[in-house]
Write a structure and sequence with these properties.
Length: about 425
């Protein structure tokens, strides 16, 4: 049986992090076990770990600080780090795995992306090597397959509609709550020569946020769960056709910057449209705040967010959120030093690491004992606790072949090169082949 990706009740996901918080200066591993010195300390022969991650900016600084703490506890271990942008990372990591030379500790998203490598017997089972009670169970579930844990989550990433408060104030706009209000905001911005929404959709996943939110707002999380579980509904459900129609309504309304399907996200061109006030909004995860703090710190005072709007007659709860656990730290089964690699993962998910991550990157965390002092992180945590459901990204949940088709057809919907009916039909035909 496939594991459903939507938690119907997720109030406990972050409540313990907020209410049973440890002091901000608390040290130690989330495992609750003091890190041990390496057995070969003083032998004069250093062991080496390779650690790969995707995030730049403050997130990277938090990771590297955790690495330094690990190295102080393990003075005879060298840690080689490599930061690679998101989309390049996926390809580079797949090549390393297939070539038999993966890093010891690596960034993952859990879900279907990680499970592909688990199925290939390339990821270390770390069940029983950490204190599971220190983590949100819902977040931990995303890297648990057949009762075995293959990664520890640090952060929780939430997608919201980010906007420039100054632009909204200039044109007397309020954050929209309904689709009709959203369209009126778009029209007003266009009339004033402002690009309504910045989109860099060359890697396809940024546009997928729209498909997922529109499907949820139209029919609720049950539609995806049923299509994924093969329990009655399919990816050709009228709700998916409707979601495609709403995407194309935005495209035909010219709500996005020109050439959006050919613009790479990691290069930052889409974000520059926000920073330079050429565009007013962007649908993106809270990783955007991390980008702002490293790329355009002065812009942060203008930044705010609102929930994705409701649809006419929509069945999805307006508080439902697109979310993912990221980063999830996993260990390669080919690691020559698996116990040390696990110790590094535990340092990367220690309370001290999690507190710094929440304070400096605007991200809720999957680890208990953290107080939310950052305004964005606090609001995100509240949104999660108030949500009736979280839905995980399709491309990190579906099998790789179907996930890629999901991104391809969604990008084609934005480009108006396929009809919503055709996109839904293609998805369902492939689902019948790969979801058994």
């Amino acid at each position: 049986m496939k594991k459903a990706i939507v938690a119907s009740s997720i109030a406990t996901l972050l409540l313990s992090a907020c209410s049973s918080a440890a002091p901000a200066d608390q040290k130690g591993s989330a495992s609750g076990t003091p890190a041990q010195k390496t057995a070969d300390a003083g032998s004069g022969q250093k062991k080496t770990l390779e650690f790969w991650y995707i995030d730049p900016g403050e997130k990277e600084k938090v990771f590297l600080e955790a690495v330094e703490r690990f190295k102080k506890k393990h003075p005879d271990v060298e840690v080689k780090t490599l930061q690679t942008p998101n989309d390049t990372y996926k390809q580079k990591f797949s090549v390393a795995m297939s070539g038999g030379n993966p890093p010891d500790v690596f960034h993952s998203w859990g879900g279907g992306w990680l499970k592909e490598f688990v199925n290939q017997d390339n990821v270390l089972d770390i069940t029983g090597k950490f204190d599971a009670a220190a983590f949100s169970q819902q977040a931990l579930d995303n890297s648990t397959f057949d009762g075995k844990v293959y990664g520890l989550p640090l952060g929780l990433s939430i997608a919201e509609m980010w906007y420039n408060k100054d632009i909204f104030a200039k044109y007397n706009l309020q954050p929209p709550t309904t689709w009709d209000e959203f369209l009126k905001v778009i029209d007003t911005l266009k009339q004033n020569k402002v690009i309504p929404i910045a989109l860099a959709n060359q890697p396809k996943w940024p546009g997928a946020y729209y498909l997922m939110y529109l499907a949820d707002r139209a029919e609720g999380p049950e539609m995806f769960n049923s299509a994924f579980q093969r329990t009655g509904r399919g990816f050709d459900d009228p709700g998916y056709v409707k979601a495609g129609e709403y995407i194309q309504e935005l495209a035909k309304r010219e709500a996005f910057n020109k050439g959006f399907n050919g613009i790479a996200y990691d290069a930052g061109q889409g974000r520059q449209l926000l920073y330079t006030e050429q565009a007013a909004m962007m649908l993106m995860s809270n990783a955007l705040v991390n980008n702002v703090r490293s790329e355009a710190p002065s812009f942060e005072k203008k930044l705010d967010f609102f929930p994705f709007p409701t649809l006419p007659g929509g069945k999805g709860d307006p508080g439902n959120l697109q979310a993912t656990t990221a980063p999830v730290w996993s260990v390669s089964k080919k690691s020559k030093n698996p116990e040390l690699a696990i110790e590094l993962v535990k340092e990367l998910t220690a309370v001290e690491t999690a507190q710094a991550y929440a304070d400096r990157t605007a991200s809720p965390v999957a680890i208990k004992g953290v107080t939310y002092q950052d305004a964005y992180a606090n609001r995100m945590a509240e949104a999660v606790n108030n949500a009736k459901a979280l839905f995980w990204p399709y491309d990190q949940t579906l099998p790789a072949e179907l996930a890629e088709l999901h991104k391809d057809t969604t990008q084609a919907l934005f480009g108006l090169s396929i009809t919503p009916e055709e996109a839904a039909k293609k998805m369902e035909e492939k689902a019948k082949q790969v979801l058994k």
